[in-house]
Design brief:
The structure holds 3 protein chains of 3 kinds.
Chain A (H helix, E strand, L loop, with lengths): L1 H24 L15 H8 L1 H32 L4 H16 L2 H26 L13 H25 L3 H9 L4 H30 L2 H6 L6 H10 L4 H30 L1
Chain B lengths: L1 H7 L4 H13 L4 H8 L5 H13 L11 E6 L6 H11 L2 E6 L3 H10 L6 E2 L6 H6 L21 H4 L3 E2 L2 E2 L2 E13 L10 H8 L7 E3 L3 H11 L9 H14 L3 E4 L4 H6 L4 E5 H10 L3 E4 L5 E8 L8 H12 L1 H11 L6 H6 L14 H5 L1 E3 L2 H5 L1 H12 L1
Parallel strand pairs in B: 1-2, 1-3, 7-8, 7-9, 11-12
Antiparallel strand pairs in B: 4-5, 6-9, 6-10, 6-11
Helix pairs in contact in B: 2-3, 9-10, 10-11, 10-19, 11-19
Chain C lengths: L1 H36 L17 H4 L5 H32 L2 H12 L6 H12 L4 H7 L11 H25 L3 H9 L4 H29 L3 H6 L7 H10 L4 H25 L1 H11 L1
Helix pairs in contact in C: 1-12, 3-7, 3-9, 3-11, 5-7, 7-9, 8-9, 9-12, 9-13, 11-12
Classes of the chains: A mainly alpha, B alpha/beta, C mainly alpha.
Chain lengths: ~270, ~400, ~290
């Protein structure tokens, strides 16, 4: 009972600020701080604003790419690392360790500084290599640099989660499967993967969430691209209007809808 | 640098202030003041030129693209104008707000900003030209721009080595806004400002996240020049700032929300924001300090690597339309230095003390100096103050 | 046999290759460049000029307060998040029926899907003059200032990172075999004893992961102090943003970044020694 009450309080703490965001998104006034009446006009403005949609799109592309890349590469690396011993294992352990430990802001700055320096070196070389009259490609900061920088952290996150799961995995099933002369691939698909799946899913979700929500790395390495957090940051800085609240509410509503949809699907499958 | 502007000006700052004082005292008419100071030279021309000027659409055809990225300052535009421009041209505007010129410069130096138009202050333009970060402007693409209607004192920084890189947006001054309902007395100087910050205003004062005004205010409070780059003077200013830091409410250039919510009682303030605050909340007053401060002018510029140059010209041209400028003024409260606009404003505007404070106060003001933008010591003093 | 070894070696190599490339290009190379920059000089207009000087490191004491703030808020913020998150994670993993589990769990992470920026901004309203202080004034408690105080920053930290703490603890508790708890109570253990002897040790890896994640993110935090600290409470992250985006002092910024990495290496290694080493030891002994 106390547990329930406590949990309810925590949920309240989590959702009161969100309630305020949603409430003020219906504000008809221009200032976000004074509630002047109910209106949907800020939703119209937000949805009419190509920069909002574009930044949302950019954020989704980045987050999906980073989450997919890191789930694939991270799971692969975690599985491979099971078989690696000796100094190589120590080396990888420390690389994972360092990439998780280094704060996002340092990754952002280091990536910015390094890429700007490398691009300054490479661009003139590219220009000389390219045939006369054809405009040489110019390397610059953009979506790829954000995805790459996000993936560094999220991949290591996936490796850690999947390895923890491997460590806690019931090995007797794998041994049984091997005793029954199942091929390694079959054992992997039928035994290992299902057991790892929760960790991979958790890793994917965490990666997506981290990447979608990240402001600081993108702020440094996105070049002229605008992600949703960058858009929101500059909106807040120029004096927040309820448009920002409307954007937040839309994102929230979409994630909730997806959530309910997934829940319904899962329950249906369970019934069958 | 700022000295040069004054020397080149057909009317010097001193002369301007003298005329201004006479005007304030009522010994000359507004028309005389406008005429003599260059604020109103084009007034006569305007009658005939206006119809054409006024009705000129922002751009005739729809080949401007669909976007424009615009970097400016907080509370500096009329949202209705932005919407009208988008409605007329199909060009959507993304606004980024910045709290200091240094921040804009840092962004531009790091490259790939994507900006098409931005709003730098007088003292930075020569630096931008030197760093090759802004384009020379093709004034033929800005038919609404009329140099003769502008006060040269404010518009001169736009020209570097005989080339025009910028057009004047607004001018104003940096003073103090305070909430008279919360404070027992009115601060009249930067010395008062810092004394009261550490006294009855403790916990309720805002200073800018901007080296020029925040260090400048502290320097003035100590009796030094607003623009000083002298190591000893800066060290004393830094000490004053760090001593007052525990008493501050915030360090931010977007001080309106804090003042409006009543959390903050006193702030370093640009006059237009002072006017906006005073209009909405009469107990918030704006005053210039008796011991100095800044007079400034802001400009529109196009960065070197702007991607939507056509839209940028159309947008600047639109904003230079006197009618549009009037709407801008009504929203942000900054004088334009453009006589065509002044002619359209209600006469009582010229008597507004927040726009045009007493001349003896204006006399003490300095234009920001180009050296402060790149001075490593000033950059480090403000950074140390913030991270103290 | 040798053939099979070769094949599995190739597979291992292929699985590790992308991760290796990533580490080299996105981690090692940038860190080397930053390290090189940290020995350079600021050019007069800002940016970097090649040089070899220790001036930047000599100037580090000027950012002492930022390091002190970070090293205070990060551990205490982590601890506070842990204390608040643990009971919730336990509730979700052990007490909630499977039917509601997923929903409630995802409800924890949903706030994460509205931008941290917007959620932090909501706290500006709540803690600002027209929020809680106005309510307090209504019941007669005047002149309470919450916004732009260390308290506000702390609330923002807990709010921002609670979901990150709940998730890994939940994952480790979810693995808990409930039969163990039943066995323990069958053997006459009190619930509290079962918790101490079974649940808590089992959840150690999750706690360690959660704490590490939150701690690391806090060490590089920028937004929360910037928004809820009024630009007055500077973390190292704020000092870094300031150096790169205002003062344009790339070499000094690089030195501060290197210093932050060193501080992180020391604190996290210490922390791992203290917690993870112990918990895996327990883990093994349980098996």
């Amino acid at each position: 009972m106390i547990m329930r009450l406590y949990s309810a309080t925590v949920y309240l703490f989590l959702y009161v600020p969100i309630g305020i965001i949603v409430l003020f998104s219906f504000n008809s006034g221009r200032h976000a701080s004074d509630f002047e009446g109910l209106s949907l006009k800020w939703y119209g403005k937000a949805l009419d604003n190509p920069f909002v949609l574009e930044s949302l799109n950019t954020s989704l592309i980045i987050a999906l790419s980073a989450a997919c890349l890191s789930s694939l590469m991270g799971t692969g690396a975690a599985l491979a690392l099971q078989r690696v011993r000796g100094p190589l294992k120590t080396l990888f352990d420390s690389l994972i360790y360092i990439s998780i430990m280094i704060p996002g802001i340092v990754i952002g700055i280091a990536t910015l500084v390094a890429l700007v320096t490398v691009f300054d070196l490479l661009n003139p070389m590219l220009a000389t290599l390219w045939p006369e009259g054809v405009k040489p490609p110019k390397l610059r900061l953009g979506l790829a640099s954000v995805i790459a920088a996000h993936t560094l952290f999220t991949m290591s996150l996936v490796i850690v989660l999947v390895r923890a799961r491997i460590a806690g995995m019931d090995r007797s099933l794998i041994e049984a499967s091997e005793d029954l002369y199942a091929t390694p691939l079959r054992t992997f698909i039928q035994i290992t993967l299902p057991q790892l799946f929760p960790a991979i899913l958790a890793g994917f979700l965490l990666s997506f969430t981290f990447s979608f929500d990240d402001f600081i790395i993108s702020f440094f390495v996105a070049g002229s691209n605008t992600t949703l957090p960058i858009y929101v940051f500059s909106s807040i800085r120029r004096g927040i209007t309820p448009e920002v609240n409307a954007i937040g509410t839309i994102v929230l509503a979409v994630s909730l809808t997806l959530l309910i949809f997934a829940q319904v699907l899962l329950q249906r499958r369970d019934k069958r | 640098m700022s000295k040069d502007y004054k020397d080149n000006a057909p009317i010097t700052a001193k002369k301007f202030m003298e005329e201004f004082r006479r005007y304030q005292k009522g010994s000359v008419s507004r028309r005389h003041f406008m005429g003599v100071t260059g604020l109103g030279t084009a007034m006569a021309v305007m009658g005939s030129a206006m119809p054409g000027l006024m009705s000129s659409p922002a751009h005739a055809s729809g080949d401007l693209g669909d976007r424009l990225i615009f970097s400016t300052w907080p509370n500096y535009h009329n949202p209705a104008n932005m919407e009208n421009f988008t409605g007329d041209t199909g060009v959507n505007i993304q606004i980024n707000a910045f709290g200091s010129n240094e921040e804009m410069l840092a962004k531009l130096q790091a490259g790939a900003t994507g900006w098409d138009v931005f709003v730098p202050t007088n003292y930075t333009i020569s630096n931008y030209v030197e760093l090759d970060l802004i384009q020379e402007l093709d004034l033929s693409r800005l038919p609404n721009h009329d140099p003769s209607s502008q006060s040269p004192m404010f518009s001169n920084p736009a020209t570097v080595d005989g080339k025009v890189y910028a057009v004047l947006k607004n001018w104003g001054h940096t003073g103090i806004a305070y909430n008279s309902a919360k404070l027992s007395k009115a601060p009249t100087s930067w010395k008062d400002f810092f004394d009261m910050t550490m006294g009855e205003g403790s916990g309720h004062t805002i200073v800018h996240d901007y080296q020029l005004t925040t260090i400048g205010g502290a320097l003035c409070a100590l009796g030094y020049s607003f623009n000083s780059v002298d190591a000893g003077e800066l060290a004393k200013a830094e000490k004053l700032l760090i001593d007052s830091k525990p008493h501050l409410f915030a360090i931010t250039s977007d001080y309106q929300p804090g003042m409006r919510s009543g959390d903050a009682w006193m702030t370093i303030c640009w006059n237009g924001d002072g006017l906006q605050l005073n209009n909405d909340i009469p107990e918030i007053k704006y005053t210039l300090a008796t011991d100095g401060g800044e007079i400034w002018s802001d400009f529109y510029c196009i960065p070197k690597d702007a991607e939507h140059v056509d839209a940028a010209y159309a947008f600047i041209n639109y904003l230079l339309d006197p009618k549009v400028q009037v709407l801008e003024f009504e929203s942000h409260g900054y004088a334009t230095g453009d006589s065509r606009v002044d002619a359209l404003l209600p006469p009582e505007t010229a008597e507004n003390e927040i726009l045009f404070p007493a001349a003896e106060l204006m006399n003490g003001l300095e234009f920001g100096a180009a050296a402060t933008l790149t001075d490593p010591l000033r950059a480090e003093v403000i950074a140390r103050f913030k991270s103290a | 046999m040798a053939n099979e070894n070769n094949r599995s070696g190739l597979l291992t190599g292929a699985l590790l290759a992308p991760a290796t490339a990533w580490f080299l290009i996105m981690l090692i190379m940038p860190l080397i460049v930053v390290a090189i920059f940290s020995f350079g000089e600021r050019s007069p207009v800002g940016g970097y000029v090649a040089s070899f000087t220790f001036d930047q490191y000599a100037n580090l004491p000027s950012r002492f307060a930022a390091f002190r703030n970070t090293l205070t808020f990060a551990p205490f913020g982590t601890l506070a998040s842990l204390l608040i998150a643990y009971p919730l994670a336990y509730f979700l993993a052990v007490k909630v029926s499977a039917r509601w589990k997923l929903l409630l769990l995802v409800l924890v992470i949903v706030p994460f899907w509205t931008s941290l920026l917007i959620r932090t901004y909501a706290w500006i309203f709540i803690l600002g003059g027209k929020g809680i202080p106005a309510m307090l004034a209504f019941i007669g408690i005047d002149d309470v200032r919450l916004i732009n105080t260390p308290f506000a920053v702390m609330v923002g930290i807990i709010y921002g990172y609670l979901p990150l703490m709940v998730f890994p603890i939940y994952v480790s508790l979810d693995k808990l075999d409930k039969r163990l708890l039943e066995a323990s109570s069958d053997l006459g253990g009190t619930p509290f004893r079962s918790f101490l002897q079974i649940t808590l040790p089992l959840s150690m890896p999750g706690m360690a992961t959660g704490c590490m994640l939150v701690f690391i993110l806090l060490m590089g935090e920028f937004l929360i102090p910037a928004f809820l600290g009024g630009g007055k409470i500077f973390f190292v992250g704020n000092a870094l943003v300031d150096l790169f985006l205002q003062s344009r002092n790339w070499p000094f910024g690089s030195a501060v970044a290197i210093m932050l990495v060193i501080v992180m290496l020391i604190t996290v290694t210490l922390y791992m020694r203290l917690t993870v080493g112990k918990s895996t030891g327990r883990d093994e002994s349980l098996m």
